[in-house]
Amino acid sequence: MIQQKIRVLIEALPYIKKFNGKTFVIKFGGSIMKNEEAKKAFIQDIVLMKLIGINLVIVHGGGPNISESLKALRKESRFINGLRVTDKETMNIVEMVLAGQVNKEIAFEINNQGVKAIGISGKDGRLIRAKKKYIYEGDKKIDIGFVGNVEEINVDFLYDLIEKEYIPVIAPTGFDDRGDSYNINADYVASAISLAIKAEKMILLTDIEGLYKDINDKSTFISQLSISEAKELVSQRIIDGGMLPKLECCISAIENGIKAIHMIDGRKKHSLLLEIFTDKGIGTMIRGGEQ
Ligand code: ARG
């Protein structure tokens, strides 16, 4: 028993050394945010990592909370290609829920544990400049309202917060020069921020275990893969349809210089610690070029 405890702690040592002073961007996603137990474990993991000396930036989602609020207001949620059609009224609710409720709650929980966190949206400190996104079906251009892509990240603002030991907790909304707000996919925001601040890792916490070669066969779980293997999964359409955009987003992030991306199951308690401080991890790790 004692031996085992020692082994666990010593296994963590090289990773504590390696990641001290480095920056990780963590996306805390959608439906796991409704799971109180998993959320509590997530906050503990964040606090522990920060105290070990890892700089953290958190980007959160909030889809289910938004749908719930829209439903309470009797407003239908409509999706095209997985993107929420966002009219002005919906955007107001998105901002209220994401940047108001969800964002402040996560930041508050971290602060409550004695680690400094600050909840902001992409509109604070001109953090995320956005550009309206259209969907194309053949040559048809579809307007889905106030949905955006990231155009520019204000890195100086993030560096200032990180330097002062704050964990920025970011709601994925953006602004443009006309003063409009945009709803942006949290995976894209996490990857744009990771690239802009040259993060050591991007970690996507979702409600899947990671990647499988065959989603129906648990023995085909992929613990780690190189960028060329990831591309092969995409080109051969081995990966399940819903995972495809996520994997493509990861591939482009790695190609642009992120060293490693981890996809881990946020429903499993302390999956973050298990992934980062053990040799085998628990999820799927996509390695960048030189690793
Ligand atoms: N803890 C190490 C790291 O964060 C290794 C993680 C391995 N993970 C995996 N899914 N195979 O770099």
TrEMBL record:
Substrate binds at residues 62-63, 84, 183. Keywords: Amino-acid biosynthesis, Arginine biosynthesis, ATP-binding, Cytoplasm, Kinase, Nucleotide-binding, Transferase. GO terms for cellular component: cytoplasm. It catalyses: N-acetyl-L-glutamate + ATP = N-acetyl-L-glutamyl 5-phosphate + ADP. Pfam families: AA_kinase. Gene3D superfamilies: Acetylglutamate kinase-like (3.40.1160.10). The keyword Protease does not apply. GO terms for biological process: L-arginine biosynthetic process via ornithine. Coiled coil: none annotated. One of its GO terms (molecular function) is ATP binding. Its main location: cytoplasm. Its EC number is 2.7.2.8. It is found in: Cytoplasm. InterPro entries: AceGlu_kinase-like_sf (IPR036393), AcgluKinase_fam (IPR004662), ArgB (IPR037528), Asp/Glu/Uridylate_kinase (IPR001048), Glu/AcGlu_kinase (IPR001057), NAGK-C (IPR041727). Belongs to the acetylglutamate kinase family. ArgB subfamily. HAMAP family: ArgB. Catalyzes the ATP-dependent phosphorylation of N-acetyl-L-glutamate. This is Acetylglutamate kinase. The gene is argB.
